[in-house]
Write a structure and sequence with these properties.
With 155 residues, the protein is mainly β. The protein is built from no helices and 13 strands.
Length: 155
C-alpha cells in the first residue's frame, strides 16, 4: 500500500507555458498591413519568458523541445466581407519567418484561430500578427475569450 508519494517525482512539467491577451481596449488594425498584436496582459507565464511590452515569447535556456503554440484574433466590427488573418512568426538567429497562419472570411465579427505542435530551440522568438483587407481600419477585440496568444512545452 502506498501511503505517501512525492508527486514532483512522477508528474511531468509542462513549462514554460504562457497565455497573453489584450487589455485596456480593442486594438486598431490598418487595412492590408500585418500588425503586431499588443497582447499586454499575461494570464499565465510560468518562466517569465513572455515579454508583455515587446509582445514576444522567447524560449528560455534549457527549455528547447516540443511545444503547442497558437492564438486567436477576433474582429469587433460588422461590415463588408473581408479576410482576417492571424500569423505567428518565429525568429531564429535573427531571421524572422512566417511560421503559422489562421484565416477567417466573414462579413461580421470574424475569428481567425490557429495552433500547431512544433519543435522550438533555446532563443527562438515567437510573435503574433493580425492582417485584414476590409478597405479601412478594424478593431481586434480585447479579452481572453476573444483574442489571445499562447505556448506550452509538451514535455
Amino acid at each position: 500500500t502506498i501511503k505517501r508519494i512525492d508527486v514532483s517525482l512522477v508528474k511531468s512539467s509542462n513549462t514554460p507555458a504562457f497565455m497573453a491577451t489584450r487589455s485596456g481596449g480593442d486594438q486598431t488594425i490598418a487595412n492590408a498591413t500585418y500588425t503586431l498584436m499588443s497582447f499586454n496582459n499575461e494570464i499565465i507565464d510560468t518562466d517569465s519568458a513572455y515579454d508583455n511590452s515587446a509582445y514576444t515569447f522567447t524560449v528560455p535556456s534549457g527549455k528547447n523541445g516540443t511545444y503547442l503554440i497558437g492564438g486567436q484574433v477576433a474582429k469587433n466590427n460588422a461590415g463588408s466581407t473581408d479576410r482576417l488573418i492571424l500569423k505567428i512568426t518565429k525568429t531564429t538567429g535573427g531571421s524572422e519567418t512566417s511560421f503559422l497562419f489562421g484565416e477567417a472570411y466573414s462579413k461580421d465579427y470574424a475569428k481567425a484561430t490557429t495552433s500547431k505542435i512544433c519543435t522550438l530551440a533555446v532563443g527562438d522568438i515567437l510573435k503574433c500578427y493580425a492582417y485584414q483587407n476590409t478597405g479601412g481600419d478594424i478593431q481586434i477585440e480585447q479579452g481572453e475569450e476573444n483574442s489571445f496568444f499562447f505556448a506550452i512545452k509538451l514535455g
